[in-house]
Every structure is written in structure tokens, then in C-alpha cells.
Amino acid sequence: MATRRRKESCVFCKIVGGKETTVPLYQDDEIIVFNDIRPASTYHFLVCPTDHIRDASRLNRSHVPLVEKMVAISKRLLEERDADFSRARLGFHWPPFHLVAHLHLHVICPPGNIGYLSRVIFWPNSFWFVTIDWLLERLKNMPDEPSSPLTSHDSAQVTSPKASQKKGQELDNTQQGTACDTELLQGTVGRTVNTDTDTT
């Protein structure tokens, strides 16, 4: 079995290593799944690699199979619970809007049960939360794997979908709404972003 990359101070790495009381819903050599401690809906799983990868911005084209496996496991777990995977909201928080710096996929179902504040926190393809479709398209359009894959210690100058829009472009009505959402996130959720105890 290959040696897994772990970070001593990472709470998710501790869960992977069995050093926390969290009971996994699923675990193999590459993936671990457990419930979010503050669920946004009836089902709210966190799907994590057992390797310590800091966040979605550190992924490259070589990680496509890993992300696709995370999605496949999410689908299986929801179907085992008679939940409709086609209605689930799947995505990653984009840095710096994550509370635990260990890559984790949010799997939320059904989205109709999400409260107002959580709707903002998990707003698809915003400055702070990106969907699976967006991420996979980004990874697949990257050049071939670099000489050394990105690790938790690498720095990458990458942006979320909204931040990737051309600078200087005049805001249309949709973008104005997103700007308002950003202000709301910074004003109400921002106090939570600095909290070390949440798993989101």
C-alpha cells in the first residue's frame, strides 16, 4: 500500500487516521466520507481524499480520476439512501472560503431543504463555491500533468468562476446580484470563515 500524505494539524487527516470519533460512512485507500457536523439539508456528506490536498485550486489534470471517483461514491451513497442524486448539489469551496484546508466535496441533498444562509454559502459557481462540472471542465482543459503534481505546499494563482470574468467588464444585473451575495457572505458568513471548529 502506498504511503499517504498526511498533515499532523489537519482535523480531516486525523479522521482518516482514526484519531477522531467521527464515524466514516465510507472509506477505502483513497477516499473517506463522513457527515458534515452542520448539515445544510437532509443529507450533507463530505467526501475527502485520504491524501492531504489543501483545496480544489491545487488540483491539476492528473486529479480528474480522483474527482470522478469522489462523484461516483457520492452517487452510490445517496442512492443507498433512496435520495435523488440528479437533484443533489455537489461542489467545493474555493479558497480562501473554506474552513478546513483539506480538499472536501460537499454533497447536499435535497437542495430544496437548504436554508437561506446556506443557499448563499453553497451558491453554485460563485466567488466562493464551485460545482463539479466547472471544476472537471477546468481540469480537463489544463495541459498535461506537470513534472511534479501540485501538493499542499504549492502555491497556485488560480481564480473561481466569477473572479475569472474579464476585468473592467461592466456588471450586468446577474453580476450585480452576485456582488450583493458576496457582500452578504463577507458580512454574515465571514465571521464563520475564521472559525477553526467547523467542518465546512
From TrEMBL:
The active site is at H104. GO terms for molecular function: hydrolase activity; nucleotide binding. A motif (Histidine triad motif) lies at residues 102-106. Residues 11-119 form the HIT domain. Residues 145-200 are annotated as: Disordered. It catalyses: adenosine 5'-phosphoramidate + H2O = NH4(+) + AMP. SUPFAM superfamilies: HIT-like. This is Adenosine 5'-monophosphoramidase HINT3. It comes from Ridgeia piscesae (Tubeworm).
